[in-house]
């Protein structure tokens, strides 16, 4: 405990100097400038920038998947004038003193997010999503260009390639192309599986024409493919030839390696649907809503609605489908850094809303804020005892359709209110954070409150909060009950909307 | 008058009378309507209890006995309170309630796999591999019938077993079931049904008030007017109300007389049926109680069917029949539809392991209450049980009947975005059963 106290003194008192590593582009600089300018043409002047702590909370959550620790916040403040850009670079590209940790965390976080894109919550899956996530993590860790990654997913030769994504979706061509067209091209064609689509122009020939590329992959338990060769598929007695979407020309029967051709067509830098869908999804992930909000139905956007999107997609393709560069550029832009609206601002052309933490972000932020043990050797580390899985599973039951939908229900709220993790966090005997805060010598009530707020909500209390909460503490005369009062305050911090939302 | 006041108003004499009641207990005391009146104060809202027989019970050894035919096996038929209608000998207590029960002996579906058949019977839609997540019956009903200012969720699922992807679907988490499970796996405490994390450890009412105050204080630091923060506040307020009132006391089964708890059966399903009644009294529109395992037996009787089904029925029969009498004596049966079904039936032919396998071609379900015409039988099967003889009923027809019985038009539609999704996939209600 003494070590922890010393740790807190250090991070509240001392300044740590850090080397700075700013480089010219390839760090998303010029793309960020382009986004700023293009945004001004479309939306006018950007809203005021959020404050530093809010910014830090955003980028830590968005890139490494958890809130920043108090000591990371201290380091950030010391980075000097250009600190926001430097922080983005450290987190995105894994640079600076914590490079290894950030590289690992950011590829895990990107992989988790992309796994949710490929397998949205509620999808019926056959087996675990772990192999897919591991495959994605590897791709992001190696900075595989986005088109190459999606090409591998498209051109599979067996069901267990590319993280077994094909198997995971049930091992059926129709399931695979439903998800592939949605995730990679931003179009939902699966309604055309059984009948021509009543609202948009998708026909059965489109759906089954795409499914035909996968017709020779062994299916299900009996391993019988629909067809012995890729390129045609039979559904309800009718045979459909393979063809690309938005094309009337079926591929010739003699085409070699049709799936490789599909992969080339789908991920081509000339395919505006592909690059636009990618940047739209990443924009949605970072800013909360897509440049065109209905990210799965891009074909419903008007040319005007998707102009910005298409141009950003072109630049993304031109820069070699570099996901890290794109993420850095968006995070450096004025639009990402805009203040969150306090109230719905009517028809303001650009607004930033609250975002909801993902289930893993909730746990990993709890772990960080509460100073929980993380090492595999520590038998009590909730990360490894199954508590993380339990919390993530419970929260995963109700993940919203976009980052702006809070859709948790009563069981999720009860878990955070009364669950074991929370009980231990607010208990003086078991809570590392609480003991560090109440047992640190020289701390007055103000320091204690500030530390709790920074650790959990990444901000300091407002003056009104400070008054009310210090009164709440000092209303208890006994020292013990004053300490317990901090436990109650911590309970409220963990259960406040601010903890599970990102402002 | 709140539920708690109503419970306080039970006098010692009431409890003595209960204690003095005969062993058939629940059928004999005058105190029951008192709570019903207090709870509702007016005509109670419509609700539905689904007794979900996960695994697929044998129709021949429960609702559609075939004595005298080789496929009937050793199971005998017994007469019921309604002349001319027979049930299997495994359900002697239920037989006495026959005048409240409508049997449908002509279920005809097309899914013989547990997962797919469960999806069909729970949602009314066959699994298609598309991306529409169809909501289960409980979510559909909760969405229609949930009173605006309810303290409890609109759909409670007691000891549920379901494939992971079945839930509120496109209706969203507001209509997802509140899961109630046993507090432990200790067989002696399995009947101890609770909502996980409902009880804050070591917290008194005054401390709860403190927490509310602190939470209010912190909410002011957030842009509270926008969507996510507002939803968060609403969910937390409801969760806090549930914690404060301990779910309006619904889960405190200790408040029930010992006799009545015994009558339902001291097992998870029996106590779950009792809890279902308590939830319906508190205006929860849909409660699902699952019976999948009892004393190491399951409905999935591929082996030793006759002993297995008998064991299951020893749990089922007292719980189901006590639920019907209990609801009736509280004046709640007319407003509460009780549905008994599994995902399919079992093969009439007995396999070499004395078992019966999955069989969707001709099987049975039962409906009671909610204005359903009791003491009736819809459809029949051939003497060997292998086929529906007349009046085939599909999954969608059954669900259409359920909706109509609780006052939801079977022609209603939900919307997934702009796209209309019929509440029932083209089913026709069984008109003969609807009042």
Summarize the helices and strands and which ones pair or pack.
The complex is a heterodimer of chains A (503) and B (435).
Chain A: H1 2-13, H2 29-43, H3 52-64, H4 70-77, H5 83-93, H6 99-118, H7 130-141, H8 146-154, H9 165-168, H10 173-185, H11 204-211, E1 232-235, E2 238-241, H12 258-266, H13 272-287, H14 307-318, H15 323-332, E3 355-356, H16 359-369, H17 382-385, H18 387-396, H19 410-418, H20 420-425, H21 432-439, H22 445-457, H23 463-474, H24 479-495, H25 497-500, E4 501-502
Antiparallel strand pairs in A: 1-2, 3-4
Chain B: H1 3-8, H2 12-20, H3 32-40, E1 47-53, E2 77-79, E3 86-88, H4 92-95, E4 101-107, H5 114-123, H6 137-145, E5 155-158, E6 178-182, E7 193-195, H7 205-219, H8 227-244, H9 258-264, H10 268-281, E8 286-290, E9 293-294, E10 297-298, H11 305-329, E11 336-342, E12 345-346, E13 358-359, E14 363-369, E15 376-378, E16 380-381, E17 388-390, H12 395-405, E18 413-416, E19 419-422
Parallel strand pairs in B: 1-8, 1-11, 4-15, 5-6, 5-8
Antiparallel strand pairs in B: 2-3, 4-14, 6-7, 9-10, 11-14, 12-13, 16-17, 18-19
Helix pairs in contact in B: 10-11
Protein name (chain B): DUF1501 domain-containing protein
InterPro entries (chain B): Alkaline_phosphatase_core_sf, DUF1501, TAT_signal
Organism (chain B): Bremerella cremea
């Amino acid at each position: 405990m003494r070590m922890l106290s010393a740790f807190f003194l250090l991070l509240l008192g001392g300044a740590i100097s850090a080397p700075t590593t700013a480089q010219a582009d390839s760090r998303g600089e010029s793309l960020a400038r382009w986004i700023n300018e293009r945004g001004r043409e479309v939306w006018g002047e950007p809203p005021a920038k959020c404050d530093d702590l809010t910014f830090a909370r955003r980028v830590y959550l968005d890139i490494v998947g958890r809130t920043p620790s108090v000591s990371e916040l201290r380091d950030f403040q010391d980075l000097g004038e250009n600190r926001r850009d430097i922080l983005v670079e450290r987190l995105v590209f894994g640079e600076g003193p914590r490079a290894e940790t950030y590289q690992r965390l950011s590829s895990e976080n990107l992989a988790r997010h992309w796994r949710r894109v490929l397998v949205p919550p509620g999808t019926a899956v056959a087996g675990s999503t772990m192999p897919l996530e591991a495959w994605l993590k590897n791709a992001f860790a190696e900075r595989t260009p986005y088109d190459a990654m999606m090409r591998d997913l498209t051109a599979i030769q067996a069901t267990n390639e590319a993280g077994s994504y094909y198997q995971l979706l049930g091992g059926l061509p129709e399931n695979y192309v439903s998800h592939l067209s949605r995730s990679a091209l931003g179009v939902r064609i699966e309604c055309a599986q059984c009948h021509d689509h009543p609202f948009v122009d998708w026909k059965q020939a489109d759906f089954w024409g795409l499914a035909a590329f996968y017709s020779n992959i062994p299916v299900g338990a009996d391993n019988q493919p629909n067809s012995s060769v890729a390129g045609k598929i039979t559904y309800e007695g009718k045979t459909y030839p393979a063809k690309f979407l938005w094309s009337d020309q079926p591929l010739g029967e003699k085409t070699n390696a049709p799936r490789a051709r599909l992969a080339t067509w789908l991920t081509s830098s000339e395919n505006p649907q592909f690059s636009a869908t990618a940047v739209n999804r990443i924009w949605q992930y970072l800013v909360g809503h897509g440049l065109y909000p209905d990210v799965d139905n891009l074909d419903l956007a008007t040319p005007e609605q998707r102009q910005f999107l298409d141009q950003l997609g072109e630049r993304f393709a031109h820069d070699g489908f570099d996901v890290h560069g794109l993420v850095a550029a968006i995070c450096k832009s004025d639009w990402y850094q805009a203040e969150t609206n306090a109230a719905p601002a009517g028809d303001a052309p650009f607004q930033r809303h609250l975002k909801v933490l993902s289930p893993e972000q909730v746990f990993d932020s709890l772990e960080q804020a509460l100073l929980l043990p993380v090492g595999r050797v520590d038998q009590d580390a909730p990360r490894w005892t199954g508590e993380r899985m339990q919390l993530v599973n419970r929260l995963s039951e109700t993940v919203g359709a976009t980052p702006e939908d809070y859709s948790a229900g009563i069981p999720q709220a009860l878990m955070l209110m009364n669950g074991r993790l929370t009980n231990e966090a607010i208990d003086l005997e078991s809570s590392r954070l609480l003991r560090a805060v109440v047992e640190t010598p020289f701390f007055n009530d103000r320091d204690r409150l500030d530390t709790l707020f920074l650790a959990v909500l990444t901000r300091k209390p407002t003056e009104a909060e400070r008054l009310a909460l210090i009164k709440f503490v000092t209303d208890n005369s006994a020292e013990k009950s004053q300490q317990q009062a901090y436990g109650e305050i911590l309970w409220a911090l963990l259960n406040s909307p601010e903890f599970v939302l990102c402002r | 008058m709140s539920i708690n006041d109503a419970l306080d108003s039970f006098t010692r004499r009431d409890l003595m009378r209960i204690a003095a009641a005969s062993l058939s207990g629940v059928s004999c005391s005058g105190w029951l309507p008192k709570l019903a009146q207090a709870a509702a104060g007016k005509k109670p809202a419509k609700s539905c209890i689904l007794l979900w027989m996960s695994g697929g019970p044998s129709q021949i050894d429960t609702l559609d006995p075939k004595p005298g035919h080789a496929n009937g096996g050793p199971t005998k038929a017994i007469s019921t309170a309604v002349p001319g209608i027979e049930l299997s000998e495994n359900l002697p207590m239920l037989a006495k309630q026959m005048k409240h029960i409508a049997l449908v002996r002509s279920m005809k579906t097309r899914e013989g796999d547990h997962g797919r058949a469960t999806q069909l019977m729970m949602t009314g839609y066959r699994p298609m591999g598309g991306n529409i997540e169809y909501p289960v019956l409980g979510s559909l009903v909760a969405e229609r019938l949930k009173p605006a200012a309810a303290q409890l969720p609109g759909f409670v699922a007691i000891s549920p077993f379901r494939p992971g992807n079945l839930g509120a679907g496109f209706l969203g988490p507001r209509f997802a079931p509140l899961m109630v499970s046993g507090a432990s796996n200790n067989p002696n405490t399995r009947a101890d049904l609770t909502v996980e994390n409902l009880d804050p450890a070591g917290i008194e009412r005054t401390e709860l008030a403190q927490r509310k105050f602190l939470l209010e204080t912190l909410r002011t630091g957030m842009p509270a007017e926008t969507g996510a923060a507002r939803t968060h506040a609403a969910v937390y307020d409801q969760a806090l109300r549930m914690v404060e009132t301990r779910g309006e006391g619904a889960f405190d089964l200790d408040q029930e007389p010992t006799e009545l708890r015994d009558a339902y059966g001291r097992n998870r399903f029996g106590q779950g049926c009792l809890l279902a009644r308590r939830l319906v009294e508190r205006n929860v529109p849909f409660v699902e109680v699952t019976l999948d395992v009892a004393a190491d037996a399951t409905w999935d009787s591929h082996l030793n069917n006759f002993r297995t089904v008998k064991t299951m029925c020893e749990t089922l029969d007292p719980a189901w029949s006590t639920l019907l009498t209990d609801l009736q004596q509280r004046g709640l049966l007319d407003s509460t539809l009780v549905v008994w079904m599994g995902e399919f039936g079992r093969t009439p032919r007995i396999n070499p392991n004395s078992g019966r396998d999955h069989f969707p071609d001709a099987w049975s379900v039962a409906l009671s209450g909610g204005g359903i015409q009791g003491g009736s039988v819809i459809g029949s099967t051939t003497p060997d049980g292998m086929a529906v003889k007349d009046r085939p009923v599909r999954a969608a027809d059954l669900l259409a009947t359920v909706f109509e019985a609780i006052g939801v038009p079977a022609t209603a539609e939900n919307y997934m975005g702009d796209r209309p999704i019929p509440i029932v996939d083209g089913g026709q209600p069984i008109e003969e059963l609807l009042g």
